[in-house]
Fold this protein.
Amino acid sequence: MSFRSSLNRRGAVAAVVGIVVGATVLLSQAGSASAATKAIGNTSPECQGYKAFSSWDIKVDGKSIPHGKGRENLTDRTHAGDTVELFFKLGSNCDNVYVGLDSYTALSDHYVASEASKQKLFQRQADTYKADGSTHHLKVTLPDCYYQVDAYTSGQFKPGDYTLDNKFDRFLGGDNGGSKSCVASTTTVKPTTTTAKPTTTTTAKITTTTTTPVVVKPSASGKACSADGLGFTVSYANKGTSSQVFTSSANGKVLESGLSVAAGKTVTKDYTFAQIGLAAKATTQVVVKADTKQVASLDITNDCLEVSASVAPRCDTVAGSGAVITFNNPGKVDETFEVTRNGVAIDGSPVVVKAGETAKRSLLRMNEDETAVLKIVGVRSGLNVQKTVTLDCTQVEATTVVPTTAPPTTPVPPTTAAPQVLGEQITKPELAHTGTNVMPWMVLGTLLVGIGAALLGARRRIADVR
């Protein structure tokens, strides 16, 4: 066989091999392009984001978290090293939908738009799914350093995509966190070469890795009355260098079962007295724990709203006559009262009564004999006072009307006035004279009695002489 013939054969073989390899590459690229196109799937607006699902659930470390139609479903609910899972079932009208769950390493513990392109994909689970009635499951693990996690639909999602209006509707939720850099700090000494004849000395490259210690400093504080007076406020503070999970309870009711607070952050929550079944004037404790260790115990009393109002008619006050309305607010928050007269708001309504202010009075002028229905409603407290008031300041006395023509009367006989007694004189009546006059005989008898007495006296004196 000549050298030229051999060369021709080898060239032919090489050509065939080149054709086969080239065809394989082309087919592979075509298949990849087809797969990429297929991966985008159904992008109709009614099948983007949560609207694509007939049911779905998000779990962090195996525990379901509250989620809804918003885009904050994962916000402040994850921390470094957590496992995030997405369970979903596509709606019957949303077939062939691309759904994904990604985790990235990041440059800080919060989202910075200028750093989004520098994030690196850590884990991804994504595919185009059928609306076949089955429940699909995606799962990723978060890095143990600064991270970002995103859940989305309708095509692949990049870390900065959720800031774009045309991609925001595809966003199911995301979070940022972590307490340390994903790049170990290094100290590098550049190699140097010193030449001194006849020897050469080389200093080797030295790399030192520094590990930042984890600082745990959870705490909690409370405010006895929320702004609306219907409850109380609890602030969960994390001044440490790693995320903390808080739980809290009050009056036997759970307030938080797993509130994640990123390092250096504080989360403030409002709760109502009705939520924990705390009656008026009653007192209870809010117990706060971080990673099962109690960090605070806060006393709260349901006495934030304590209001009353009354209505009474008054006459001739300094401001006039009418209905006096008295407001009392010995509570701890301001109250606003709405006052109506026969269903129409009065001038000056609503009336704001400051916390601790009592006996605040307002006069509603009324006309004599006027009747009005007054209604007082506390905006925050729900107080409802309704009273019907009649103003009656002028009292009318009954009078007797004498007829102009006197009716006929029965004649009365004239009476004689009783005589006035000026003195009293008693006159005894004399007996009538009958028979002989006895006066001379009485004189004679008296004379004889006298003579007899004289003779008797003389006789006694003669006897004594003898």
